[in-house]
Design brief:
The protein is mostly helical. Helix content is 80%, strand content 3%. Strands 1-2 form a two-stranded antiparallel sheet.
Length: 172
C-alpha cells in the first residue's frame, strides 16, 4: 500500500514538473529581452539584429565574453545532464547522478549572470542601436525568475527520479 502511494506521489511530482516546463517554455517564448523594430516577415534582418544583440557585447567586453562562454558551456552541460541522468540512473548510479545534476544546475544558476551583464551593456549603449529596444526591467526580471525557477524544478525532478530509482529501480 505504501509503495503504491509513494509511486503515485513521485509520478505526480514528475508530471507536474514536466507540465511546468511546458508552461515556462510557452511563457518565455513571449517574454523577450528585446523588441526588434523591423517587420515580422524580414527574417534576415531579424536574424542579424539577434546576432548583433548577442555578439556585440561579447566582442567588445572581455568580462562579458568569458561569462558568455561559461554560460554557453554550462547550458550545453545542463541539456546533456537533463537527458543523460535518466540513462545513467537506470544503470545503478542514482545518487551520484543526482548530485552531479544538482551541481550543474547550481552552476547554471550562477552562470546566468552573463544575461545580466549583457543587459547592463545594452542599457549603457542604448543609443548606439535603433534596430531594437530593450524590454522593460520588469519583463527582464520575470524572465530571469522563470529561468531560475525552471532550474529549481529540474533539481526537484532529478531528486524525485533518484528517490524513484532507489525505491523501485535498480535496487528494488
Amino acid at each position: 500500500m505504501q509503495d503504491r502511494i509513494l509511486a503515485m506521489i513521485l509520478s505526480c511530482i514528475l508530471a507536474m514538473v514536466i507540465m511546468y516546463f511546458i508552461v515556462v517554455t510557452i511563457i518565455l517564448t513571449f517574454f523577450r529581452s528585446f523588441h526588434i523594430t523591423v517587420g515580422r516577415l524580414h527574417f534576415k534582418a531579424r536574424l542579424s539584429v539577434r546576432k548583433q544583440y548577442i555578439w556585440e557585447p561579447v566582442k567588445n567586453d572581455e568580462k562579458i565574453r568569458k561569462a558568455f562562454i561559461g554560460y554557453t558551456i554550462i547550458g550545453i552541460l545542463v541539456v546533456l545532464t537533463t537527458v543523460g541522468q535518466f540513462y545513467v540512473m537506470a544503470y545503478g548510479y542514482p545518487i551520484e547522478t543526482a548530485v552531479i545534476a544538482c551541481f550543474i544546475y547550481i552552476l547554471a544558476w550562477w552562470s546566468s549572470r552573463a544575461a545580466y551583464m549583457q543587459r547592463k551593456y545594452w542599457e549603457e549603449h542604448a543609443s548606439a542601436n535603433k534596430e531594437f529596444t530593450l524590454a522593460s526591467k520588469d519583463v527582464f526580471k520575470v524572465r530571469m525568475a522563470l529561468f531560475k525557477s525552471a532550474l529549481v524544478a529540474e533539481m526537484v525532478m532529478s531528486l524525485t527520479y533518484m528517490i524513484y530509482m532507489l525505491n523501485y529501480g535498480v535496487y528494488y
